[in-house]
Design goal:
heterodimer, A: 440 residues, mainly alpha, 0% strand, globular, B: 204 residues, elongated
Chain lengths: 440, 204
């Protein structure tokens, strides 16, 4: 066993990653070290062929376009309008601001595929009024973090695009698959807030200044039309054209990107500076994700040629796990990695290794992919390396302490685990919609 | 903090060896800044390719449905534009520290130790990887140019060297930026400059 170089690749990766070296570069660096061991001087062309396969991947082309669409919608000023419109409808309920935040995240997550963007945008708007209303700090933190995590699961999400490109599954199938679990999760989040505020009204005091008492239905409807209809319309058009098979995810994303730019112009916010900002941010995020993808592809291919294939075969032959055991094992690994790594790293490290296992055990890759999305969402919330808390700390006032943040996310993690359990026990929650739309 | 720095300054004047050293440092930092400026040119290409990518995709959809004329080149152009875009933005991404890193544990280490570790990893493992990649990409694009190689993915069969050249350029830019990172980290081992807590090379 000791002479199989592949065995050393993962411990080495963890050392580099924990030393704080960028995850994507850690994978590229180790591909070089271990690849040189195997290929010697012919490694260069070998690495170039990996680069070539990533650079010519048509599916991944959708990624910068979805990112661009999200970044553009973020700058269109639609978020403020959405927040006000949703608040008009449900703001007066107990815990209304928290409910508004989650709903807002749900809608905005559909606009923006970028994890983290949703949380920052919604948090910056919702935290100050919630603090002012003397909401319990753990409820504020939990709400914003959990709302932010919806960006991972509500389509279109970049997680799904990356997963689909590695496991070689249709992005349309995956988008359709995450719809029901995504809605279920949003409902659970809302349910938790409603029940908590009903049982303990002092955690989320109602708005009592009477300012929102006399809003006419007409005003509500017009505010909703202006705020929600264009954004939701755009998302429905983008997702709809993918699901209906009219356009490939790449083309639909491009149309969405153009639509988002037109929306900025329609709201009167277009300028050279805004466009440059949207472009810069999209280029940065695209570089971040694509380099991680390239690193992952290089790392896993070197892992497989260096004896990883034999290791996997040996593992299957020795333990002969059942389908259920294997699924639990793989999701367990992803869950545990979620405590320390972020989604890009998890998908890219695990999926190339898991894909042959999934195929061998005939586990449905769509079903598994949906569960991966849910588990990855928990990684977004679980300390110590919780990206959600990292973003939250950047936008929250100092009186909200780290302890209440950690405490606040726990109920929402439980909600996520419930969704995971439901999808695992009852696969049609993930598979019914794709089958309905695309057939078998 | 400012007072602390002001106190340091007279000491530099008292010790004669320090001015040439400071001189060297300024050359190094000027070299780094110039290289970074050069590297940013590549991302400008990327910034041009991005809108082009959007336009090409939208044009294809419009052409297909409105004029019933699917473009033979749309598929190839799309992935080529994106491939070039992401490689050309690689160096910029490194420069702007966009890549995810887990810094909870490494932050506990002293700054100089961190600089030493990163200089070591970049120099020992990452630079050679990008070097080999860049060499392969350059040779590949050169041979594609000399033999008028065409791409075989679709029926269109365009010349492939412009795409390969973009990949090679992106890799070379990344190589230069990696060199700058190494220099910054090596300098960081010996000199702790800037106010406390601020260290661009470590991205804080």
């Amino acid at each position: 066993m000791v002479d199989i170089p592949a065995l050393w690749m993962f411990p080495a990766l963890f050392v580099l990653v924990f030393l704080g070296f960028p995850v994507a570069f850690s994978m590229i660096a180790l591909s070089f070290v271990f690849g040189f061991w195997f290929f010697g001087d012919t490694l260069g062309p070998q690495m170039f062929s990996q680069l070539h396969s990533v650079a010519t991947n048509y599916v991944l082309t959708a990624l910068p376009l979805f990112v661009f669409m999200g970044a553009a919608l973020e700058r269109s000023g639609i978020a403020e309008k959405l927040f006000i419109a949703i608040q008009l409808w449900i703001g007066k309920l107990r815990g209304g601001l928290a409910l508004t935040s989650i709903s807002m995240c749900g809608v905005f997550a559909a606009c923006s595929g970028v994890v983290g963007a949703v949380e920052t945008v919604v948090g910056m708007m919702a935290i100050p009024p919630m603090v002012k209303q003397r909401y319990k700090h753990d409820l504020i933190s939990g709400t914003i973090c959990a709302g932010g995590s919806l960006g991972t699961i509500i389509p279109p999400t970049v997680v799904v695009v990356v997963y689909g490109s590695i496991v070689e599954q249709s992005i349309g199938d995956l988008f359709a698959g995450v719809v029901i679990p995504g809605l279920l999760m949003t409902v659970l989040f809302l349910g938790y807030i409603i029940i908590r505020c009903y049982l303990r009204p002092e955690d989320a005091p109602a708005v009592d200044d009477g300012s929102q008492e006399d809003v006419s239905l007409g005003h509500k409807l017009s505010a909703t039309m202006i705020a929600i209809v264009p954004a939701v319309g755009l998302v429905v058009a983008v997702l709809g054209s993918i699901l209906a098979g009219i356009a490939s995810p790449t083309e639909a994303a491009a149309v969405g990107a153009l639509g988002a730019v037109l929306l900025i112009a329609a709201y009167g916010r277009m300028s050279g500076a805004v466009f440059a900002d949207v472009l810069t941010r999209s280029i940065k995020i695209n570089a971040m994700v694509m380099f991680a993808v390239m690193g992952g592809v290089m790392f896993s291919s070197i892992f497989l040629v260096n004896g990883g294939n034999d290791l996997i075969r040996e593992f299957l032959a020795t333990f002969n796990p059942s389908k259920t055991q294997l699924t639990i094992l793989m999701l367990g690994v992803i869950f545990l990695l979620g405590f320390i790594l972020d989604w890009v790293a998890i998908v890219l490290i695990c999926m190339p290794i898991f894909t042959p296992l999934i195929r061998a055990a005939e586990i449905d890759p769509i079903w598994f992919g949906i569960m991966v999305c849910v588990v990855i969402q928990t990684s977004y919330l679980t300390p110590p390396v919780a990206p959600s808390i990292y973003y939250l700390r950047a936008i929250s006032p100092p009186e909200i302490k780290l302890v209440s943040m950690f405490k606040g996310v726990i109920p929402f993690i439980i909600c996520q685990l419930i969704v995971l359990f439901v999808v695992a026990m009852y696969p049609p929650t993930a598979l019914w919609l794709p089958e309905l739309i695309f057939g078998n | 903090m400012r007072a602390g720095r002001a106190k340091v300054r007279p000491v530099y004047h008292l010790i004669p060896e320090t001015p040439p050293k400071a001189h060297t440092m300024s050359y190094i930092s000027r070299f780094c800044l110039a290289t970074e400026k050069l590297v940013r040119v590549t991302v400008l290409f990327g910034a041009i390719l991005f809108p082009a990518l959007i336009i090409v995709c939208v044009y294809e959809v419009v052409a297909r449905y409105l004029f019933n004329a699917s473009q033979i080149w749309a598929f190839d152009i799309t992935f080529m534009l994106h491939g070039a875009l992401f490689m050309l933005s690689g160096a910029y991404g490194l420069q702007k520290k966009v890549h995810v890193r887990i810094d909870v544990f490494s932050d506990m280490l002293p700054k100089r130790v961190q600089h030493f570790i990163y200089a070591f990893i970049y120099l020992g493992c990452f630079l050679p990887a990008i070097w080999m990649l860049g060499e392969a990409a350059t040779l590949r694009s050169w041979s594609a140019y000399r033999t008028d190689e065409v791409e075989l993915v679709s029926a269109w069969g365009p010349l492939i060297w412009p795409f390969y050249t973009a990949l090679a350029l992106g890799t070379i830019a990344l190589l230069l930026q990696t060199l700058v990172e190494i220099i910054r980290h090596v300098v960081g081992i010996f000199v702790v400059d800037g106010p406390a807590g601020h260290d661009p090379a470590l991205g804080v």
